[in-house]
Amino acid sequence: MSLLEDWLESVDKKNSILCAGLDPAEFEMERGKKGLPEGIDKLEWSFAYLDAVHQHCAAVKPNDQYWKHNMEDLAEIVAYAHDLGLVVIEDAKLADIGSTNDSGIHFAAQTGFDAVTIAPFAG
Questions:
Q1: pLDDT tens-digit readout, 46-61
Q2: Which helix (H) or strand (E) holds 5?
Q3: Could you tell me which residues are beta bridge partners of residue 60?
Q4: Which of 59, 83, 88, 115 is deepest in the core (most CB within 10 A)?
Q5: CA nearest 63: which of 38, 81, 89, 37?
Q6: Taking the mean position of all CA atoms in its chain, how far away is CA 92?
């Protein structure tokens, strides 16, 4: 199916157009109450988050900045979100020259994302 077909199917099944952001700031990032508490496993927290929101949203959008150092976990998140019937959008904000953007899109596809965010104006 196409992205549009996947999106419309998810919207219909969930009766929602919401897209939930997945931006789990690790405790070590020193974000205080805006981050995960000390000792919380980010991957386990993310699965629990998806369990809590998947019935109320059509998509989820993991932000690359929170997953840069563990792409294996991100791939697990993408697969799990798909199992829950969600469209998965990589929040990458690609904003570079063509070949670099092509690389980002290639790796997003390899990880299983359905779509990628872009920033149309570099810099």
A1: 999 999 999 999 999 9
A2: helix 3-14
A3: 20, 88
A4: 88
A5: 89
A6: 9
Burial 78-112 (b: 16+ CB within 10 A, else e): bebbbebebbbbbbbebeeeeeebeebbeebeebb
**39 φ/ψ angles, rounded to the nearest 5 degrees:** 85, -5
Alpha-carbon radius of gyration of the chain: 15
Whether 42 is catalytic: no
Q: State both tokens at 6.
A: 């996947």
CA distance 95 to 60: 21
- Amino acid identity, residue 44? E
- Locate tokens 């000792």: which residue? 39
Model confidence over 103-114: pLDDT tens digits?
A: 989 999 999 999
How far, in Å, CA of 74 to CA of 87, rounded? 14
* Structural tokens at position 37: 């508490």
pTM, rounded to two decimals: 0.88
**Tokens encoding 30:** 């020193």
Residue 38's region, left for phi above 0, alpha for psi from -120 to 50, else beta, is beta
